[in-house]
């Protein structure tokens, strides 16, 4: 026991219990005046056991009752007052009376008086206060209280023996409490030591906690841990790798973040792995799972937005360079035409320059809109897919492309961004040389397929890179925009590399309204 006050309380409890039992034994073995002295001593030492018990419970549960001067003064005064009543018992006989008998062996019989039962009732009430402190700590730490309940039952058993000795001749009418106190102390030290140590270590921790021994066998886990990992129930004594193999793998990495999905929501937990030792020897480890869902979501959203902004910067730089080259070339052509007196050609070149600049302006405005849309969506709603697909088709520059859509049902999305997503897919298909584009939904996937130019040897990720100019400069940002709009919903986008009759875009992990169709 590392805490000195807890250790001091336990040592006092063991000493008082042992001394109490020894004096009771002396009373049984030595009838007469010496036996009377032994019994009186047992009453005095036995009462001190209550004080040692309360001291231990207060220190173990992190309270300061045992250090409070007023409580200590009241306890000492009450103890001394009761001791004085016991010491003066030969004069008033209020506590007990004795009689020498020879059957079934020579000994003093004890007849307890009213004051004895008053003090006994007070003692048991104070003992109950100590147990209440222990139970409260176990409950706050969210640990199984059954081991403590077993010890409470063992400690309370002598009360039944006392009553049996008082009302019948089956047992001697003596104090059996030393047996219960001793069994409780032994139970803590040798039977439930892991549970009591784990509870004390995790007092005040609201997170999921798994307590391991030095060989990574599971010794204890609190209720939060069992809710997070149902496999922990009944796993005491098993190796961590057998019960939670994913945790073992995460602990071997630098990024100790656990990602779990419960009730359709993705949660993130930071795993802190703390070893503790006794002296120079490691005696166990404690894994604490702290819920960092909000901060981790923000971090990942910032990473996504930073990646998106880098993509925007690349796209704008690419478009600006292309536009400046075109404008420079057109201006040169116009200048040469004017030098030759060809006003028509010069006017045509300058008109083309203006159109190029205007196209660049629209691209920048479009990227600004996408930057606003690129923020994570705060509010979504069930959206009918078919009307959104129809609206995107009307807005897209499809150049004679035809569409076939089979998208019955609803998804949870932002209607405007979902429409822009489909518009980007249709625009890409038009620039990819397709004649037909189809849209289908299967379970939690939306698939956009065209019959245009296949990906061929082009790396799939190149289609989603800003500035990649696939299939051409005019449509080079369509698929990057499509992926960005999908990610704002928490969806994934990939290219089906097995499809060779055109390009197939797969949007997965789509949140469907209602039951998922298979």
UniProtKB/TrEMBL annotation:
The chain crosses the membrane at residues 12-30, 36-58, 70-88, 114-135, 147-167. Pfam families: HisKA_7TM. Signal peptide: none annotated. Residues 7-190 form the Histidine kinase N-terminal 7TM region domain. GO terms for molecular function: phosphorelay sensor kinase activity. Keywords: Kinase, Membrane, Transferase, Transmembrane, Transmembrane helix. This is Histidine kinase. The lineage of its organism: Archaea, Methanobacteriati, Methanobacteriota, Stenosarchaea group, Halobacteria.
